[in-house]
Amino acid sequence: MKTYQEVLDYLYSQLPMFQRTGPAAYKDNLDNTIRLDEMFEYPHQSFRSIHVAGTNGKGSVSHMLASVLQEAGYKTGLYTSPHLKDFRERIRINGEMITEEAVVQFTESFLKKNETEKLEPSFFELTVSMAFDYFRTQQVDIAVIEVGLGGRLDSTNIITPDVSVITNISFDHMALLGDTLQKIATEKAGIIKKNIPVVIGESSPETDFVFEQIAGKTESPLTFASQYYQSTYGMLTMDGKQSLNIRSNGEVVYADLQLDLLGIYQRHNAPTVLKTIDILNEKGWNLSVEIVRRGLTNIIRNTGLMGRWQIIGYNPLTICDTGHNPAGIKLVVEQINQTAWKKLHFVIGMVNDKDQDEVLSLLPVNANYYFTKAAIPRATDPEELSAKAAKFGLTGKCYPSVRQALTEAVINAEINDLVFVGGSNFVVAEVL
Q1: So where are the chain's domains?
Q2: How far is Cα 259 from Cα 263, in angstroms, rounded to an integer?
Q3: Complete DSSP assignment for 17-41
Q4: pLDDT of residue 239
């Protein structure tokens, strides 16, 4: 393989890829990850890290932390998934995507080394190895590593971070992680390491005891961020940011904390980030209040994050968001209800392995729906999705492609209407 496109074709077509094929690509052990790490001489041991898991919000929290670390002058790696437009979004240093040349070089190196090893890694396993190798080569000071799925058996779970972060627990990927919140929490708590501090973003009586038990066994200092910091949703500023007031012990400790990430769900993520920063400062990182403020004001500029209540058009206002499980959709609907519009046009596509009935039951009835599908094998056919939606009073037309559905929605909408696009990361990826 000589070109970047040839390498992408190999990564996408030859390797099992969960984002496209679903649970069949999920590995229930770390054997390949460990052997890949050995093959490349343990790159994960060469940099400090933060490990971020959780059902929702882990992508936003990861980007927030990376932005703050960048503002402090640290050379900061960031590994996230999935990507929306470009494979290289997954691996960044100070906001800059991994180079095409580095992707090619790593893949060629793997193929040569693998002539004797004969490993059959998944797409995610090889991508994690690529990220760790790149971070070592580029000599990052610290890397923020987002878990792909679950935690205990995730390919990222070979690192020993400065702090482990678990944003929240709700239902998602039940076929792989378990059918109760306690089982899901146990899988995500698998990232907790011996004597390493762990921050739980949102406290819940259904799952707190799981984290308390596991942290107790590993002697890991445990903190529930929501017990230290509370965020009140403020307002949008004149330059399009959202302003939060953060309280602790009843007093405002961050007045007018501005985020360039929109979406009311960021009020849940901000306390998680702030408590994690407290612990990083205790470990010797220099993250002042002013640095924190600059980092959270410039998340998009610093890291390139997309798809979080992102405005993609005006007249009519057109917004996309990657929320796709019941907990995420609840917050999306809450945000829609707090947005001014005359009529709501909802472009939606979903994948087969989600709890579609639960999601559909949460969506507003007073909307025109444009049922569609992303161009991946896991996508549900629009006609099938429409039939399921009808049981919940959701009506609309079907479109064979996301682009066609969005075009039709914008044509039908008047200036004061709202066009929303979501239901799946892959639907959002296609409109971006």
Answers
A1: 4-303, 310-431
A2: 10
A3: -HHHHGGGG--SSSHHHHHHHHHTT
A4: 78
Contact 75, 169 (CB under 8 A): no
Calpha distance 48→162 (Å, rounded): 7
Coil, helix or strand at residue 92: strand
Q: Which positions ≥6 away from 126 have C-beta within 8 Å?
A: 11, 15, 36, 107, 110
Is residue 164 a contact partner of residue 194, using CB atoms and an 8 Å limit?
no
Q: Output the pLDDT for position 385.
A: 98
Do residues 125 and 33 make contact, with C-beta atoms less than 8 angstroms apart?
Answer: yes
Contact 188, 166 (CB under 8 A): yes
**Cis bond upstream, residue 82 (ω within 30):** yes
Query: Pairing relation of β-strands 242-248 and 251-259?
Result: antiparallel
Q: Which CATH class is domain 4-303?
A: alpha beta
Q: Which two tokens stand for residue 413?
A: 């909408």
Report the relative pairing of strands 76-79 and 198-200 from DSSP bridges. unpaired
The domain made up of 310-431 is a member of CATH 3.40.190.150: no
Residues in the chain where the model's pLDDT stays below 50: none
Domains 4-303 and 310-431 share a fold: no
For 288-322, give the DSSP string.
-HHHHHHHHHTHHHHH----SSEEEETTTEEEE--
Q: What is the pTM of this model?
A: 0.92
